[in-house]
Amino acid sequence: MSHDQQLRADRLVFYEKEIEELNSELDAFLELSKAKTAMLIDREGHLVTRRGESIKSSLDSVSALIAGSFAATREMARLMGEDEFAVLHHQGVSNSIQIQAVGPRTLMGVIFDGRTNLGLVRFYAQECNRRVKEILQQVEVESEGRGSGLDENFSASAEAALDKLF
Question: The whole model's pTM is what?
Answer without folding.
Answer: 0.78
